[in-house]
Amino acid sequence: MLSLCGLLPYPSPAGGRGEFFDFIQEHVLFIPFTPFEDFVMSKLFDSVHVGRYTLQNRLVMAPMVRSRAQFDGTPDELAAEYYSQRASVGLIIAEGTQPSDDGQGYLGTSGIYTDAHVVGWKKVADAVHARGGHIFIQLMHTGRRSHPDNTPHHRQSVAPSAIAAETKVFTPKGEQNTPEPRALSTEEVRQTVQDYRNAARRAIEAGADGVEIHGANGYLVHQFFAPSANTRTDEYGGSIENRARFAIEVATAIADEIGADRTGIRLSPGTPLPDIDEGVDGPDMFRYLVTELDKLGLAYVHIMHHGNDTLLADIRNLWKRALILNRPGRPREQIGMDVASGLADLESYGQMVLANPDFVERLKVNAPMNAPDYSTYFGGGARGYTDYPALNEVERG
Ligand SMILES: Cc1cc2nc3c(=O)[nH]c(=O)nc-3n(C[C@H](O)[C@H](O)[C@H](O)COP(=O)(O)O)c2cc1C
């Protein structure tokens, strides 16, 4: 059977799909686009400026921890293969990666603060670049969503306040409750900002194109936003301005270190986590935060949308640069709609990219997607990581 590989790259759908398209239509499982779908999809394949880069399309791989790093947090060759397989998305945002020992919450996550980490990430970045892709590393400090059994120093976790997260975490001894963290002193908060700055510098040293600050999903930055996790009485707690201060200081420090045009941030207003309550003024805090971040000139804001459409529209108006939108569980038939409507400049996808190394190519020809295997999301080796077949491999049987 003919390998489809030799027929890549595919022409843009707007200009006719060519030989590859015809082959797929004839031999594989192609469902023709309607004219409306054609219009919606074609915009996704336009190039787009994000920060200092021109990306080949508007599709983004959402950050996903896969817990396959070496014991010291260094990503290995398999990670390089995994990300390079997915390099045809416009931007890869690599897995949540700790900026320090304190920042680790889970087993097997990557770090970006030692020489070994830089060596490991360099292999990843080089492999992605060799296939024409762009990669940002997500800086994830888990704060209180951690356990001493999972960190290199085995110390009590740190957080805005000494309030335990209402969650369990997988440890070498099995699943355990996340214990009460220690509240960072004001001086330690400032030091933590420097940890992010250092990690961003190391990411660039490793050849990454930039970093994304993880300000979502109940981790450290988000803990500062939420009165349910932050009862501080210094300048990092209380008012909207104070709760947003840590995120702004982290963004400012990173932008100063590596350039605002290589710095992005992810936010998830209204995250449905039992222990994260952003308060009645939560939406206003996000409006204030986005306004302040916009002044820094960051490359992008990446919103994981949880349903407050008014707030999302406001963020779109307040934010003058690239907006990446993630709608968890977005059905296949809605892909492209936020870019087509102008609500977003780019759309990010997690699980579909995880399970489809050739996600972009499959979208272009409206081919079916591989289903993800949940059992291999976290930990393990190549299975469920680098062995999802691309269309050409399906064809080869
Ligand atoms: C295995 C897995 C790991 C994830 N790890 C992260 C992470 O490190 N950082 C983050 O911001 N979101 C993380 N997420 C959330 C995804 O980025 C994404 O927002 C989510 O999967 C919803 O999008 P989707 O429906 O397109 O998958 C993770 C999701 C999955 C499935």
Please provide the ordered H/E string of secondary-structure elements: HHEEEHEHEEEEEHEHHEHEHEHEHHH
CATH class: Alpha Beta
Strand pairing plus helix content: what structural class? alpha/beta
Number of H/I helices: 13
Bound chemical compounds: flavin mononucleotide
Q: Beta-strand level of the residues, as a percent range?
A: 5-15%
Number of domains: 1
Helix content: 25-40%
Spans where pLDDT lies below 50 across 5 or more residues: 1-28
The CATH architecture comes to: Alpha-Beta Barrel
Strand order of the largest sheet: 3-4-5-10-11-12-13-14
Q: Calculate Rg over CA atoms.
A: 21 Å
Residue-averaged pLDDT, rounded?
91
Count the E strands.
Answer: 14
CATH topology: TIM Barrel
Task: Give the distance, in angstroms, between the N- and C-terminal Cα atoms.
Answer: 9 Å
Instruction: Profile the largest sheet.
Output: 8 strands, parallel, barrel
What would the principal axes of the Cα set say about the shape? globular
CATH homology-level superfamily: Aldolase class I
